[in-house]
Design goal:
Layout (H helix, E strand, L loop, with lengths): L7 H12 L6 H8 L15 E5 L5 H17 L3 E5 L6 H8 L7 E6 H10 L7 H4 E10 L1 E6 L7 H10 L5 E4 L5 H13 L4 E4 L3 H9 L6 E5 H9 L3 E6 L26 E8 L4 H15 L2 H9 L3 E2 L4 H21 L6
Parallel strand pairs: 1-2, 1-3, 6-7, 6-8
Antiparallel strand pairs: 3-10, 4-10, 4-11, 5-8, 5-9
Helix pairs in contact: 1-2, 2-11, 3-11, 5-13
Length: about 350
């Protein structure tokens, strides 16, 4: 076996994780020992790395570009972000799934690509569970339950009471059918034991405009980066945050569980994935570098400014999360009879 050319600090961190009882893959243990287990990773990366993301200006794209600059410095090769927006990011995922598993083509993976779209689009073109190798989760963020400032509802309980008085009549907006705000709203309604009428828009901007206009849409779920400025300006009212703990950007807003949705929690996420079959030492090297970047003070400030936070996971933990959410969203989509439009 050939020795890997590895910075001593990096090897020390992997070794520390192994001794701490972290469930590293056997190949990662080989990295800690100074060998690559197969020779595949010893010359990696040999050229610039492609990082595919969805549409320009989206959350995955913004996170991909921030990470790419720092990851490229850590790897010693440029990490170049490429946007492929077609089919809600499915084409980007398909491209990575079909790429050579040599660590030079990566994906900024979203919940939709990994856990939702497979249940909405029978001809997706890739199998996220079989054809993508989870590397690590990168960033996480909750949503806010929002109503217009002029709404008579001042708490989640008010919304629930209105829904019970007029079953199926309260209208909520989303950026589109099958998007995380749509499905998390359905999950929230399910946990509260009420129903509502879904009004899908063509994107977050139009949905927010509909909510701000105080017309057809009575409430919605939206990320903090887009909604907190409107909350602070008094144009929208936040009834709850979907995370398990309160968010520092809106510390006075209760969690959904505190507001009455006991057991409910939703966190959106993005992460890093590679083609299935990518050598384990490469996957674990990537996970380690992303973890180091995400745990920096700079990262915490950057994520915090966007209403989110870093939230890395080991490759095996990330794979378990994807499998669990794949099952959860599939069950919800079937039980609520949600179909792509």
């Amino acid at each position: 076996m050939e020795e890997m050319d590895m910075d001593p600090k990096r090897r020390s961190l992997i070794t520390t994780l192994a001794f701490a009882g972290v469930g590293l893959h056997p190949m990662a243990k080989a990295v800690a020992a100074g060998t690559d287990g197969s020779g595949a990773a010893s010359a990696w990366p040999a050229r610039p790395v492609r990082l595919l993301a969805g549409g320009a200006g989206t959350v995955p794209d913004i996170r991909a570009r921030w990470l790419a600059e720092r990851l490229g410095a850590a790897l010693g090769q440029p990490v170049v972000v490429e946007n492929i927006a077609a089919a809600g990011g499915s084409v980007a995922a398909q491209t990575v799934a079909r790429a050579a598993p040599d660590g030079h083509t990566l994906l900024m993976l979203t919940q939709g690509q990994a856990t939702i779209n497979p249940h909405l689009y029978p001809k997706l073109g890739y199998d996220p569970l079989a054809e993508l190798a989870p590397v690590t989760r990168f960033g996480v963020g909750p949503l806010l339950v929002l109503v217009p400032a002029a709404s008579p509802w001042t708490s989640l309980r008010d919304l629930v009471d209105a829904a019970r008085r007029s079953p199926g009549s309260i209208q909520y907006g989303s950026p589109g059918v099958g998007t995380p705000p749509h499905l998390s709203a359905e999950l929230l309604l399910q946990s509260l034991g009420v129903t509502g009428q879904h009004i899908p828009y063509n994107g977050n901007g139009p949905m927010l405009a509909g909510l701000l206009g105080g017309g057809q849409v009575q409430w919605a779920l939206e990320g903090l980066a887009a909604s907190v400025p409107h909350v602070r300006a008094g144009r929208l009212r936040a009834l709850a945050v979907t995370s398990a703990r309160r968010n520092s950007a809106v510390p006075d807003v209760p969690t959904a569980a505190e507001a009455g949705a006991v057991g409910f929690e939703y966190l959106g996420w993005t992460g890093l994935a590679a083609p299935a079959g990518t050598a384990a030492p490469i996957v674990h090297r990537l996970a380690e570098e992303v973890h180091r970047i995400a745990e920096s003070d700079e990262a915490r400030r950057w994520f915090g400014n966007l209403g989110s936070e870093p939230g890395t996971l080991r490759p095996d933990e990330f794979a378990s999360l994807i499998r669990a959410e794949h099952a959860k969203w599939g069950e919800l989509i079937r039980s609520r009879r949600i179909e792509a439009q």
